[in-house]
Amino acid sequence: MVTRLGVDIGGSGIKGAPVDLDSGTLTRKRVRLKTPQPSLPDQVSLTLRRIVESFPGVTGPIGCAFPAIVISGRAHSAANLDDSWIGVDAAALFSEACSREVTVINDADAAGLAEARMGAAAGRDGVVIVLTLGTGIGSALLHDGKLVPNTELGHLHLGGQAIEKTVSNRARKTEQLSFKEWAGRLNHYLAHLDRLFSPDLVVLGGGISKKFGKFGPLLRARAEIVPAALRNDAGIVGAALSVDPWIG
Ligand code: BGC
Predict the structure, then answer these.
(1) How many angstroms separate the alpha carbon of residue 121 from the centre of ligand 1?
(2) Rounded to two decimals, what is the model's pTM?
(3) How far is C-alpha 103 from the chain's CA centre?
């Protein structure tokens, strides 16, 4: 059994756990700490280190899911994090803070990898879109199981502003939308994605995916729409998987 530590950095929480790469299951209960506010690079690195230190027996490189465009370990955006992240080599910063190699991948791409490898999209060919509905909206686009990284489909503009501002789970909560109202907005978004990408399957993830029973039946789309199988752990699992992309 190969085990890797996966950590998912979000706008409000940072959570990590060791992951069994064969089954994609967490081998220990995950640890969650609040994301420091403001979410400055040094403060976030310290929180990451505290999470890593809470799993003393788990050695080896660490995979980290990060809520921004990530190219070769460097952050190129910061929609739900402090702006000072833009241009920062997150992989180098985290590796130094943890005194271990840390690889960094966009959080939704991590969730997409995990769902494609061992979740709701396992064994599915064709065009698959995985959306994480949380503080923002993250996206992973896969074709025949292969990821096209950094798609940022939560930043498509519809009705004059980025879709994540009105369709994320945060928007649902802050605007106190009923599931019917929120599903209406999601349907609008899904129709737009269909016009652009003609997906065969759309996987809806993020913490809210556990309430899929409440809004799923209200969704109307040409593509098949399913909840994420790995729910809110998909980021942790995908981060761990991304350390050794050749395994599995
Ligand atoms: C960011 C994405 C991220 C998503 C989910 C968006 O605001 O731009 O990079 O994947 O939030 O965290």
Answers:
(1) 21
(2) 0.97
(3) 15
